[in-house]
Each structure stands twice: as C-alpha cells, then as structure tokens.
Amino acid sequence: SLWGYPRLRNLLHHFVDGSKVRPGWRIVANCSSIGTLGASKTDWLDTFIKALQTTNSTLGKNQRNTVANAQVPHVAQSTQQKTAQDSNTPPGKSPGNTPQTERQCLFQLVFPTVEMVRNSLMGYCGGGSVPYQLQTHRRQPWLRNHMCRWESDYGRSRVVPHIKTYCRISPDMKKLAWFLLTSANLSKAAWGQKCDGKKTTNKECLRVRSYELGVLFVAKDSALSVYNPSDRSGMLVPYKLPPQPYHSPDKPWICDVSYKEMDTHGNTWPIPDLGC
Fold this sequence. Notes:
Elements lengths: L3 H12 L10 E5 L14 H8 L8 H8 L7 E3 L21 H6 L1 E4 L3 H5 L15 H6 L7 E2 L15 E6 L5 E8 L5 H4 L1 E8 L2 E5 L6 E6 L4 E2 L51
C-alpha cells in the first residue's frame, strides 16, 4: 500500500469524498508511452481503473483497515469551495455501487495518432519521444477502443505531448474529483503488478520496476473546477474536453514503424540523418 497504484488508491480513499462523486465520472489519462497491459482489459487495466475509482465510500472492510494503517503524506489541496453536483446519477444508485460493466467503459486514454504526429510542428521527429512499440500494440488491440485524439484548446494541438496526467472528471466536463500530474506512463512497470502467488509477511507482493514522481491535486471540500478561460480559474487540463474517440481511420502513433507519407518538414519516418 506504500507504492504504485495501491498507494494512489489509498490516497484517494483518504481525500476524495464519495458523496460528491457519481458513478458516471470517468477516468481520463494521457501519457507518452504504453506498456504491455495484457491480452484483455481484465489482465491488469480493470484492476488499475478500479483503484482510480476509489473514494472514501468504495473500499471493502479489509482494504479500509489497510488504508487506515498506511502513512499518508501531504497532498496539495484546492481552496475552491464550490459544491460538485451531478444530475446524471440514476435514482437509488450510490457512488460506491458502480457495476462492473459500467466501470469498464468509463476509461479514456488520450494518445497521439499517426496523423497528429505527421502534421505536428516537429513532424515525425516529434514522435521520437512517444516510444509506443508495434509488438506491444499487437498484444493489446482492445486498447484502441479506449483511445482518444490529442487535441488542445490552448494552441498545443500540433505539439506532440510528453505530459502524463490522470484524472476523474464529471460527465459535463466541468468538475474534477482529483487530478494527478506525474512521470508515470500507463504501464505495469510504473504502477506496479501483483506478483503471481507470492506474499511477503502475509501481504500480497507488488512488483514496481521504475521510479516515478507525481503530484496529486484534490479539492478541500468538494470538487476541483476545470479551467475557465473567462476568469482564468480552475485546474487546467492539457487536452480538449470532452476527449474525442479515435475516428475509423485513426491509428495510434507507433515509433518503430516506417511511414512513407511526408510530414510537415518533407521527411518520412524514420529519419536517420537527423538522428530521429
């Protein structure tokens, strides 16, 4: 519970008020690389999503005891006092009772397409910092169903992103239960994976292969407001809201594939003379 996604789950349990977060609030992530997640969502991603949906009303008794005994560091808090409301919650449905089928569809991953990289300010060279590989992509074709286009309202639609963020956002795209700015890409190496059949001192083993650092923003009393350009207040989300799912011809950028159509600088990919 001190590292990886279990650590984030524990922090969300301590700081996110489940009475203010409705089941329709989705998880949106963006990253610059994707690890091998498994042949299906149930292999790892469902567990990760469930952890990110944690509030103070969603953990079971054993998990709550684990969280209660964990040390909680300082977390950056917003001073906003507005109350989060969501009229889309079905009658008689509590935030902590999200069905498994609904939980599985409430995840979106913002990731650049081949065309976005080709038409970016740096052209294909910009894709050199987005090292998603073909072999990995072939192992998880189901992930494309969750992918959304990288677009930005702040003049960055043609800048290949390297930022990594995770958040839980309301259906109207105006409120955030929390927002995480981090170095962690979407991978088991960054977030951790349970060791098969292994336990240490009667606790489950978690394997985390990389050092990561992040800052978690949560509201002090209710929910964070998404950035409002009219009064320059709220949390600035780096991509356009709502995220737009991939269109039929869209393909995620894959760094170890050849692209013959010229980019904005007249280059094809790879570009050996430029070291890209």
